[in-house]
Amino acid sequence: MDRVPILKLGDILIISIQIDLDDQSVLALQEDLADAVVTHGARGVIIDITAVEIVDSFIGRMLANIAATSRLLDAQTVVVGMRPAVAITLVELGLSLGGVRTALNLEKGIALLDHVRGATP
């Protein structure tokens, strides 16, 4: 099983998903990210899904769970790079990804995190 690398940029963790996600790799990512948020004291998490062409309901729910876990550990999550087909599929599956912020690209995701973190004490 391939692990998704987690990069650190200041107090932001960046995950760029470049592999086909199966159930096991998504679960491993959730655990790895929770550990990394605590270890690095991260205040923000960016999940780049630019390379993701297809999602199913499990992966959609796991993105929401990853964001919820990060929030509980005091880190905001932004999903960036969502393709139109992926957004349409998520809507068709009835997955709104509540609590997950989105941005078009990495640059806008970082700006959104900076804005959100600046607005909260």
Describe this structure in words.
This protein has helices at 23-40, 57-72, 84-92, 106-119, and strands spanning 6-9, 12-16, 44-48, 76-80, 101-103. Strand 3, helix 2 (57-72) and strand 4 (76-80) form a beta-alpha-beta unit. The N and C termini lie far apart (39 Å). Helix 1 (23-40) packs parallel to helix 2 (57-72). The relative contact order is 0.17. It is α/β, with parallel strands linked by helices. A five-stranded mixed sheet has the order 1-2-3-4-5, sandwiched between helices. The protein contains four helices and five strands, in the order E-E-H-E-H-E-H-E-H.
Chart the SSEs and their pairings:
Elements: E1 6-9, E2 12-16, H1 23-40, E3 44-48, H2 57-72, E4 76-80, H3 84-92, E5 101-103, H4 106-119
Parallel strand pairs: 2-3, 3-4, 4-5
Antiparallel strand pairs: 1-2
| Structural class determined from secondary elements | alpha/beta
User: What is the average of the pLDDT values?
Assistant: 89
Q: Strand arrangement, largest sheet?
A: 1-2-3-4-5
Query: Helical region count?
Result: 4
In what range is the share of β-strand residues?
A: 15-25%
What is the H/E string? EEHEHEHEH
Low-pLDDT runs of 5+ residues are none
- Sheet having the most strands: 5 strands, mixed
How many E strands? 5
From the alpha carbons, calculate the radius of gyration and give it in angstroms: 13 Å
Tell me the helix content: 40-55%
Distance between the termini: 39 Å
Overall geometry comes to globular
